[in-house]
Amino acid sequence: MADFTARFADPAEQREWDSLVTDNPGGGNLLQSMAFADVKSRHGWRPRLVVLDGPGYTSHNLVLEKKVPLLGALWYLIKGPAVNEVDHVAPATRAVAELARREGHRLFAIKVEPDLLDGPAARETLRAAGLVKTFNLQPNDSTALLDTTAEPNQLLRTLHSRGRNAVRRAIREGVEVQRMEPTEETFRAMYALMSHIEDRSAARMRSFEYYSRFWQNFVDAGQGRFYFVHEDGEPSVGAFVINYGSKGTYKDGGSKPGRRQYGDSHLVQWTAITELKEEFGIVEYDFCGTPPADQLKDKDHPHHGLGLFKTSFSKTVTDFVGCYDLVVSAWRYRVWNLVAERVVRQVYWRRTHQPFY
């Protein structure tokens, strides 16, 4: 079994955090960024920056801490631990548990969600290592990923015919995509467009304050930007996209129903992809959330329509292993799992109108 040690990041590492994260196995994840850590610090979580030293590599991991009355603390390695093999997940997580014990933190569980591909072998490896499968938290635990390494003309030809034809028609019919300044007006317009998506699904949107802080943080870090299409002088399609290391991500989006401009949403994405590729050299673009691969054709899935749109670019769905728990205290975890988690999430929603996670 691989050996790992864990420690808290020193001040120099904290100052260079994003560049260190993007050197992680797999290229890092925007949800491990300093911009996102600040967002979560304003919504009930305490960020901790943890360095894992493993067999031949080092990774930098954002850990989110939330304390639960009577039970102690839950640590959440969001999109981590950043390891390069599935059999490294358990020893890396146990190293984090040992760090918590050594530093006097009373944990009952550690939640992990490494960006490693799902499959029977991966699931059995994690189960055999004592990790407990739980419900997934992030929208891109199943997602559409586009390899963007080809030159633009060739890249367009690699898209699914539905996406390629929509982009070409939108260009031919003069649809205009605008890069928007990150103003209060843009934030409000983006949030309003996102609310139309909520109207058509069972999703619970976070508050405007949450999104505005998220957007502003990534803009200020030089990692976020908005693209809009307008119809009749009003925003009709909007997207907020992020460049983080070698990856681009379609993080937030929305659109008005009943639009007349065919292919407008496709052209927004194509514009974002080509500009991020040209300016930052991204090699991958994450459409950030689809139904799992085996549910993509299920018309009753709440994200069926989004899945069809996003796979019109990438053709296929990538499933990651999703969320697992490392149990630190068996009896306290049992209380959490049977009763406390459900109660805490309900109370937190009623008190803050924000999701617990």
Automatic annotation (TrEMBL):
Q: Which keywords belong to this entry? A: Acyltransferase, Cell shape, Cell wall biogenesis/degradation, Peptidoglycan synthesis, Transferase
Q: Which InterPro entries match?
A: Acyl_CoA_acyltransferase (IPR016181), BioF2-like_GNAT_dom (IPR038740), FEMABX (IPR003447), PG_Glycine_Bridge_Synth (IPR050644)
Q: Which domain of life does the UniProt lineage start with?
A: Bacteria
Domain BioF2-like acetyltransferase: from-to ranges: 162-289
- Record Pfam families: Acetyltransf_6
- Gene3D superfamilies xref list: 3.40.630.30
Q: Which residues form a coiled coil?
A: none
A biological process from GO? regulation of cell shape
A GO molecular-function term, please?
A: aminoacyltransferase activity
Family (UniProt): Belongs to the FemABX family.
- Entry protein name: Peptidoglycan bridge formation glycyltransferase FemA/FemB family protein
